[in-house]
Amino acid sequence: MSLLQEALSFLQQVSVKSFSEPFLIGRGTERLCFFLPNNPTVVLKISKDNFDKQTRREINYFKFLANKKVPFTHLPHFFQEIRTPEYHCFLQERVLNEDGTPSPTLYQYLKDADVTDKKVKAAVLQLLKDFFCYIYRYNIIPCDLQMVNLLIKRTQKGSKLIFVDGLGSTDAINIAQYIAWWGRKKILRKTIFFLKNNPELASLFNTEQDIEPWVYEQIKNPRS
To answer: What pLDDT, in 10s, does the model give residues 124-167?
Structure first.
């Protein structure tokens, strides 16, 4: 059975409300996210066809990035768009650690981590730097930058942040997507806001005033 066939079969189960909760990964205001029973490394994101604004934006943005040949090193791979009379969906990579376990969100990790430990603090700052340098370099616009939308994927080569949800600009006139210098200004602004307005992240810095200089030094002008 192909991925498309399995997804369509799964959608029939959703339609009659007979899907099994073990496959549910997340639930938002617009959509449900499941992993496929026979392909647990694939996520199916499901929106009602008349309530699919977020899904349409993300599908279009994934296709835009793919056409630009942007490497998906910090994004899940996009596989396929699916439309039925009732649903608008797409298939994307499920982010798992190298051992097959689900990757934790940045929020989950920081909730349990001792960020006063110098090694932990340095490791988290490096993850953040690598991720933000990536989206800055390739002008990847986040619309919903939250710690629950960033997963920490662990491999033998190291760890990295994967941005799984909330991509693409919501601006009515989408200048940032097509004019890089404008998009990068937005990315820097969102990065600073993100770091300042999440206490778990702000605590990685000595003071709040240290955040903006760090962003400009490490992300706009990376040394490595």
So the answer is: 999 999 999 999 999 999 998 999 999 999 999 999 999 999 99
pLDDT of residue 93: 97
Whole-angstrom distance, CA of residue 76 vs CA of residue 96: 10
Rounded distance between C-alpha atoms, residue 121 and residue 126, angstroms: 9
* 3-state per-residue secondary structure call for the chain: CCHHHHHHHHHHHHHCCCCCHHHEEEECCCEEEEEECCEEEEEEEEEECCCCHHHHHHHHHHHHHHHCCCCCCCCCCEEEEEECCCEEEEEEECCECCCCCECCEHHHHHHHCCCCCHHHHHHHHHHHHHHHHHHHHCCCCECCCCHHHEEEEEECCEEEEEECCCECCCCCCCHHHHCHHHHHHHHHHHHHHHHHCCHHHHCCCCCHHHHHHHHHHHHHCCCC
pLDDT given for residue 26 in this prediction: 84
Burial class of residue 80 (count of CB atoms within 10 Å of its CB; 0-12, 13-18, 19+): middle
Residue 17 has pLDDT above 80, yes or no: no
Report percent pLDDT > 90 for the chain.
75
